[in-house]
Specification:
five-stranded mixed sheet; 5 strands; 25% strand; globular
Length: 102
């Protein structure tokens, strides 16, 4: 199985700063045990997985894992997911420019 994995340094404007999170986009959920093993292998504070949502009004469903356990919410990993999603649909430049107040 091949998965794309992005390591995003949230809250940082340069490498090796901020809060790192692993972001793994999926087409459908993997078994929870496998996602937990992947998070353990990544050994970052959080690994986040997301899938396209089937819920009305939601674009994606998201799950967060530490190396030890699934958790209910993680701010910097959620932000990291937004960065990956926005880059895939060419919105990253907009966010970057807005942050610079251009």
């Amino acid at each position: 199985m091949k998965l794309k994995l992005y390591q995003i340094d949230a809250f940082a404007s340069s490498l090796f700063k901020g809060n790192p999170a692993a972001v793994i986009p999926l087409k459908k959920w993997l078994p929870t045990e496998l996602m937990q093993q992947i998070a353990l292998e990544n050994n970052l504070s959080e690994t986040v997985f997301f899938v396209p949502s089937k819920e009305k009004g939601a674009d994606y469903d998201i799950k967060w894992f530490t190396p030890e356990v699934e958790i209910n919410l993680c701010g910097h990993a959620t932000l990291a997911s937004l960065i990956v999603i926005s880059a895939a649909i060419d919105l990253l430049l907009y966010f970057f420019l807005k942050a610079l107040k251009v």
